[in-house]
Design a protein that fits this description.
Distance between the termini: 21 Å
Radius of gyration: 17 Å
Keywords: Hydrolase
Strand content: 5-15%
Number of domains: 1
Protein name: Alpha/beta fold hydrolase
Shape: globular
Domain AB hydrolase-1: 9-236
Strand order of the largest sheet: 2-1-3-4-5-6
GO molecular function: hydrolase activity
CATH topology: Rossmann fold
InterPro entries: AB_hydrolase_1 (IPR000073), AB_hydrolase_fold (IPR029058)
Number of strands: 6
Largest sheet: 6 strands, parallel
């Protein structure tokens, strides 16, 4: 199957991450045209937003060649992707460890993170960004994932500048799409680890329940990086999901 027939996937990475994390998944989906975004040198939250919107606009300008357009987003990238979908700018979403609202009140602690957590990260980034990234990555995995060596497949820290790290945290702290989920009418494929400490699984359930067309793939004993080491399986499920959207179950 050619890339022209299958469509385009625009990949939005998570906080502090290079799009190289999607490399194996892209290789498992050779029938799609892939577009990557690099947030590593962003100077501000507006810069990240503009980079994202410009990439979407370019993809849509080439829509005759590579349609349908999917946005694949992980964590921070998933939040951005949901916002774009609420504006009607995509034909479908493929989301990993995504949330409609990262910051939660004390009463909603099982759905997200407290504001104090992100504010503390922002202060610490300005002191020692490498230490913050190391500490953050320690929360990404379950014990069995560490034992299996999945974390060893991850790219090294340090790909984002300090302004980019702060910009990403600012977006996580301030952006939310909970209030516009009903406007996301395109099909959404959600993949979420059931032991995710960063974007808790209950938040994924809430997101799936709030979307008009969502399918949630729940992965047991999995943390915040549900695609890593599972790319072949997920690629097959993505193809099956989109086939069902087009032709029925």
């Amino acid at each position: 199957m050619s890339a022209t027939r299958s469509g385009t996937i625009l990949w939005l990475p998570g906080w502090s991450m290079s799009s190289v994390v999607f490399e194996q998944l892209r290789e498992e989906l050779p029938d799609y045209h892939h577009v990557l975004i690099d947030f590593s040198d962003a100077e501000s939250p507006d810069d990240i937003m503009m980079l994202t919107e410009a990439a979407v606009a370019k993809c849509l300008a080439n829509s005759g060649e590579h349609r349908p357009l999917f946005i694949g987003g992980w964590s921070l990238g998933g939040l951005l992707a949901l916002g774009l979908a609420a504006k009607g700018l995509t034909d479908g979403l493929i989301l990993f460890a995504a949330t409609a609202r990262f910051i939660r009140s004390k009463d909603e602690g099982e759905l997200g993170q407290p504001d104090a957590y992100v504010r503390q990260m922002m202060r610490a980034v300005m002191q020692d960004s490498a230490a913050v990234e190391i500490k953050f990555r320690q929360r990404l995995w379950t014990e069995s994932e560490r034992s299996a060596g999945i974390c060893d497949m991850f790219p090294p820290i340090g790909s984002w500048t300090m302004p980019a790290l702060l910009a990403g945290l600012h977006i996580l702290r301030n952006e939310e799409v909970s209030s516009v989920l009903s406007k996301i009418v395109c099909p959404v494929f959600l993949v979420h680890g059931m032991e995710d400490e960063i974007c808790p699984y209950k938040g994924a359930k809430e997101l799936a329940d709030g979307l008009p067309q969502a399918q949630l793939l729940s992965i047991p004993d999995c943390g915040h990086v549900p695609f890593l080491g599972r790319e072949k399986e997920i690629a097959e499920k993505v193809r099956r999901w989109w086939h069902e959207q087009q032709y029925g179950g």
